[in-house]
Structure formats: structure tokens, C-alpha cells
Amino acid sequence: MMAVYEATATAPVNIACIKYWGKRDTKLILPVNSSLSVTLNQDDLCATTTARADLAFERDRLWLNNKEEEIKAGGRLATCIAGMRSLRREFEKTDNSLPKIAEYHVHIASKNNFPTAAGLASSAAGFAALVSALAQLYKLPTTPSELSIIARQGSGSACRSLFGGYVAWEMGTKDDGSDSRAVQVAGREHWPEIHALICVVSDIKKGTSSTSGMQRTVETSPLLQHRTSNIVPERMTAISKAIKERDFPTFAQLTMADSNQFHAVCLDTEPPIFYMNDVSRAIIATIVEYNRAAVAAGGEVKAAYTYDAGPNAVIYTLKENVKEIIELVSHYLPHAVPFKDAYGLFAGTQPV
Ligand code: 2P0
């Protein structure tokens, strides 16, 4: 009987606290600054990818949510597939008994388990799942950090989805990108009380893609230079420390400050880029007031908002505040109620 070479892998969505925005090398996808994210619960939001290698296949093919996508020569998909194939080739050289499946073409099918209405970038989970599925298909003895170097060349933020929990993408200094990879700062079990509430403000596709928007920022924003040289390095150190010490107020303040600065460099771009809308800003005002009242009552900062390249909010908070925040958003912003049943929980915590 002919052997069947097939594997399936999943990868979750991640939401950055310290934002990646800008490349120093657009082909290798090397960033201008390091970034740090929280990986959401795999069960809630993930991409699932199946890869199969077969001597009978005539070319590599890929289906995304049941629709075939073109694998353009030299494009991001082709680069990731070629990178994984090259690792398999190296592996085959180490052991003559391994079947020579690096020579076979592959068929890849990927699906997201979240509706596009969630307004979440799916490229991070998608490329991480693609690389993981090929790593399993090829039975590679590769670490997630090594795989992250290939996932990064599919979509920068994808490298962070190779790990659960709290993940840093170290920008690296080498020109070949061999040290620009993801590392886990802490596992999800280290601080499982944190929840991420996703508030869908709008599901309309964004006007400026991240890829083109961030390059315009690199080319035109004087503020970006200050951010990458003077702000992000210290924030990376400080937020890693806050995570290790489970210091929520510091984690929250850094997360909000970095979201604000990311949107500030977007505004500093020529022509300016706007991702947040009036509802996004109203959610910020609500969280600011919520934290002010908590501190005024002798407590601490209890919630952090963060926004990516779109108007939807993600609110980080501790489990004990989840119910209160959902009620608050439901009251003031009924159209942006967190998807509390489907999403918003990560790190294996129990549903509210
Ligand atoms: C992040 N974003 O750190 C930031 C915050 C959007 C805002 O990573 O060109 O889709 O594929 O490397 O990874 C979006 O950028 O861009 C992103 P490419 P990607 O999550």
C-alpha cells in the first residue's frame, strides 16, 4: 500500500500589546522594532490547516476557506513552502531511510474557525498554521522559534502565533533575518487570569492594509524613528517584567500607551492613516474613566484597551472584572458588546 503523507495543525490568533509597525527589509519581513503579543485561546480563534504531499500532484496548490488561492512565484506563500521544503531536504540528508517527500508537490487547505465579522487579521494564524502543518507533514525536528523564522516571511505577526501565552518577536540585528524570531516570554499557565475581550466595532474591511500602511509610515513619519530608537526597547523590557511579575497595572499602562503611540505614528504618516473611529474612541474614554474611578476609590488600573489596524477594540482585564466590563460596554456602547460567548477568553480560563 502507498504511504499517505498528510498532517493537520492549528494555530491561534495573537493580539499585540507592543505593536509591530514598519519593516527594515520588506522581502525578508524584518521589523524596525521588536513586539510582544498575547496568544488567544486556540479553541476560540484559530486557523486549521491540512497539508498533503503526493507524488501524483503536479503542482503546489492552496485553498483558503474552500476557495483556491494562487501561489505566486516568489510570493509569501511560495517562500514559506520553499522554506519548509528546504528544511525537509536537509533533514532527509541526515537519514537515508527517510522517504524523499521534499520532491513531491503539496496540496494545502486552510480554514478559520472565526467569522470574518470578527474583523481580526487572519494572516497571523493562517501562516503559523501553514508552517506548523508542513513541519508535521515533514516530521521536522525543528523548534517553534526556528519555525517562526519561516512563518515571519509569510506575515510578520504570524511568527508570534507559533507559541501560546505571552510572546516576544525579537527584531534581531542580522541582515539575513536568522535572529528575527519569536520567543515565549511566559506560558499561558503563568498568568491565566488575564482575559481578552474582543469588541467588534465594525466588520468593514480596512481602507489601508497593514503591509502598505506600515511602509508609508517608515518612509514618511519622523515620529517612527523616535519610537523605534527610544521608546520600544524600554517598553519591551518593562512589559516582559510586568508579565513575569503578574503586575497588571503596569502591563495595562504599557499596552494602552503603545496602542496610542502606534495610532500616533499612523497619524504622523503622509498622507495620514486613521484606523480608529468614533466608537473606538468612545471605548477608550469608557476604559479611561473606569480606570480613573478604580484608582480614585483606592484601587488599581483594571483594564487596558488596544487597537490594531482597524477600529475594533481588544480589552485586556483580569477575570474578576470581565463581567463588569461587559456590562459597562453593553450599557454605553451596545453595538460593540464583546463576543463573550464565542471569544474573549484565553489561557484556558473558564467561561464567565
Ligand atoms: C501587530 N499589526 O503587532 C501589529 C499592530 C497591526 C497593528 O502585525 O506585512 O499583517 O504581513 O508583515 O503582520 C499587522 O501586520 O503585516 C500587524 P505583514 P502584518 O500585531
Structure characterization notes:
Keywords: ATP-binding, Lipid biosynthesis, Lipid metabolism, Lyase, Nucleotide-binding, Steroid biosynthesis, Steroid metabolism, Sterol biosynthesis, Sterol metabolism. β13 (303-307) and β14 (313-318) form a beta hairpin. The chain has helices at 76-94, 123-137, 144-151, 210-220, 222-244, 248-267, 278-296, 322-332; strands at 5-12, 14-18, 23-25, 30-31, 35-39, 46-54, 61-64, 67-69, 105-112, 166-170, 181-186, 194-199, 303-307, 313-318. It has 352 residues and is α+β, with helices and mostly antiparallel strands. It has a five-stranded mixed sheet, with helices on one face. A four-stranded antiparallel sheet has the order 2-5-10-11. The protein is 36% helix and 21% strand. It is globular and about 70 Å long. It contains eight helices and 14 strands. It has two domains: 5-190, Ribosomal Protein S5, domain 2 (2-Layer Sandwich); 194-336, Alpha-Beta Plaits, CATH 3.30.70.890. Bound molecules: ligand 2P0. The site of ligand 2P0 has 15 residues, from α4.
Write the topology of this structure:
Elements: E1 5-12, E2 14-18, E3 23-25, E4 30-31, E5 35-39, E6 46-54, E7 61-64, E8 67-69, H1 76-94, E9 105-112, H2 123-137, H3 144-151, E10 166-170, E11 181-186, E12 194-199, H4 210-220, H5 222-244, H6 248-267, H7 278-296, E13 303-307, E14 313-318, H8 322-332
The protein binds ligand 2P0.
